[in-house]
Amino acid sequence: MEATVKFVGSLRTLTGKSKVTVHFTKEAPLKEIFKLLCDDFPKLEQILGEQTLSEAKSTMLMLVNEKEVSVLKGLETPIKEGDTITLVPVLHGG
Fold it and tell me: Where are the domains of the chain?
């Protein structure tokens, strides 16, 4: 199976890519796809590593097929063949 992951902003700079294709053997939760991404891009570990959804939401907007994951099943959102995951870093200021 394959899914596309799109990187926006500083994540594009961090990975050196605007999008990648992730290969997996069966439907998997989003957090498992993040583990695969961290294997390919170790610098993502600090951002996508073992986090709760609330921690992850404070650092990035996560979309699966253009829907924010908090309205789906969070990090347990099942990723299927052909899905598109978009990761947008959130900037905080004061």
Answer: 2-89
Q: How far is CA 75 from the centre of its chain?
A: 9
Q: What are phi and psi of 23, to 5 degrees?
A: -105, 135
Higher pLDDT: 23 or 54? It is 23
Tell me the whole-structure pTM to 2 decimals.
0.89
**Strands of 67-68's sheet in order across:** 19-23, 2-7, 84-89, 60-64, 67-68
Confidence band for 48, pLDDT divided at 50, 70 and 90: confident
The count of other CB atoms within 10 Å of the CB of residue 25 is 6
What rounded mean pLDDT belongs to the chain? 88
Distances (CA, A) of 35 to 8, 13, 92: 19, 19, 25
Q: In this structure, which topology does domain 2-89 adopt according to CATH? A: Ubiquitin-like (UB roll) (3.10.20)
Dist. CA 64–CA 78, nearest whole Å: 9
